[in-house]
Protein 1
Amino acid sequence: MFAFRMLDRSGVPAYLQLVDQVRRGLLLGHLQGGDQLPTVRAVAAGLVINPNTVAKAYRELERAGLAVARAGLGTFATDSIEQVPATTYARLSGRLRQWLADAKTSGLAPEQVRAMIDAALDDEQRRDTA
């Protein structure tokens, strides 16, 4: 079953962290459409957060079409996102991890790395639309 984790120092609200983890799980194939998400109670107890926070995340997942609640059964991931093909993920994630290791060796902070990645993505998007 899918397991959530919480990054206390991220500054991102807890419910958004949960939403992002499901979205990422679906994109990267760690979650498949039809997979059951842990119950609100289990997530809240495991992460020591308020059950209302988990419920808010699950409502947001439903609103985004990433999950669906089935009365009496639980909440299930949908297959509404196109996954990164497994071979592509394996090939590129290895190169990305090496790049991240180089960035760390260069003394870059995570915030600086994210800025570089965001800038590169923005540049690519502009290039694609030009």
Note: The helical segments are 14-27, 40-47, 51-63, 86-105, 110-129.
Protein 2
Amino acid sequence: MADMGQKGIGEELQAARIDKGLTLDDVQAQTKIQKRYLQAIENNQFDQLPGKFYERAFTRQYAAAVGIDADDLLERYDLVAPAENPNMEQVRVDEDNVTRVGMRSEENLQKKQLVNAMPKIIMGVVALAVVIVVWALVANFAGHSKSSTEDSHVSISSSSVANSSSKQSSDSSNEKSSSSEDKKKSEDKKKSDNKKTEISEPAIAGTTTTFEAKVPADTDRKLTLTGQNGDSWVLVKSNTGVVLYSGTVKSGVNQEFNLNSDVTSVNIQTGNANNLKVNFNDNDLNLSNTTLVWHALINITQK
């Protein structure tokens, strides 16, 4: 088609539209042709259309919309049909019911892909959520079980430690008590012993048996002579030369003497030693005599 003819088509169509009081939007609404293609036709810019086939098709529809005989118009302006078949894949009717030419909108394609993929995405999210929830429950249960087991062990261990500690405490207490009792007994015995007169083993030399006597302070010093199985002649003298007793100790009769504190030794001489029993501060003194005439020496010191 010649450029002059095309320019004439656009002007004629525009004039007809204006005469009918229509806007391009009105024509778009009637023809379902995108407004920018209508504007290109009015401007005789047919190179803006997608191809030769659409030059005739869109122009025919536009002419019919504004009340012009389309066949006459196309013939007058020598708008012949192209030999090749149109590429119908480039034609589409969008949601606004307007015919558009060209590749499908990338945005719409993405939307459709997104819509198609949405069920899979939702199922994936749900499956992932289920896995997370199950994992959390298992982890929580495992952690709780482990914590309970550890607590039980700790409790048992604590109980064992407590029992062991209690037993040790009891043993220690018993040991302390026993030790305290032993100590008290020892102290009591020591006190008791300290209150007693200690007599050494007899030492015999010739016809004399010697005793070492340790007397507690503030303790009486009592010498007792007892006749047994017969009479016994006895002479008792202190280290100071004082004769404490001189006479016969009858059988079954006691002769008792309380010695002064300044007396440090007592010498006993007996004529029938087998019949004489000697006691000093509740301690029997074994004369161990080998003859009837015998001597006994008691050395006295204070503890």
Note: The CA atoms of residues 119 and 125 lie 10 Å apart.
